[in-house]
Amino acid sequence: MHNLTLRFTRNLIPQFSVLLIVGTVVCFFHGHSALSATKFAAQTDQKQFPIKKSWGTISALPQGLKLKLSDSKPPKSVTIPRLNNRVKTIYLADDDTKKPLTLKPGIEEWEIQLPESVPASATVIVEFNEAPYLPVKPKVISENADQQVVLDAKDALVHGMLLRYEPQPHKNTVGYWANENDWCEWKLDLKTPGVFDVYLLQGCGRGQGGSEVQVSVNDQKLKLTVEETGHFQNFKERHIGKLKLDQTGVQSLQVKPIKKARNAVMDVRQIRLVRQ
């Protein structure tokens, strides 16, 4: 995986604050439930925050992060670290219309484009659907009460040149899969062995289907031929087979292309392992 080091550009504006507000919903390493204050504290208590930078400080909030910046020139954009979070919307706090700002997701950082006339004391609101998780450590997904291991795109570990998590509402996917050598994985923790039905939520653009992909856990492997769905963000859940998982503890589910048919392999929003 690309190391998720914290890198922030220094061309930021004075007194500029970026506030990331988080809601309470679901999809890169835990289940689909609202997080209590206790779980939030557990997730962020890795000596990650506050993070002091030459331009200011990043601090954690119960419902997000606050970036207080103090550079001398208004920037064209600001970057934040890639988080295990789905983005709902981004806008200037003093904009009553809440006009969305553009987000450009990279592999390790997300770039937020700012208006040319942004004021020096502006605050940008970035709303998420869950409590913030800065992936200093990968999330490890456990089986939920419905006997399912739900692996969301936001919790994927990506390996390679182009593959990345795209957090925008209409995407929320592992995408940019144009390099057939790129691959991704999730960490899961099984308490007991078992046989699991495997479902993969995939999208693929018109005329781009036909790539062959392998899904594996340890020595258990399944093959999938990617189905064209009309658009890369038009997702269809596919039942791709069963995995017999004999080991317990933390292990890796990996998704690797075998053959790329056209320009890109596919987009993946979620994988579910359902115990039989």
Automatic annotation (TrEMBL):
**Which Pfam families does the entry link to?**
DUF5077
Q: Sorted alphabetically, which InterPro entries does this protein's record hold?
A: DUF5077, Galactose-bd-like_sf
Q: Where's the DUF5077 domain?
A: 171-273
Any idea what this protein is called? DUF5077 domain-containing protein
Native organism is Gimesia alba
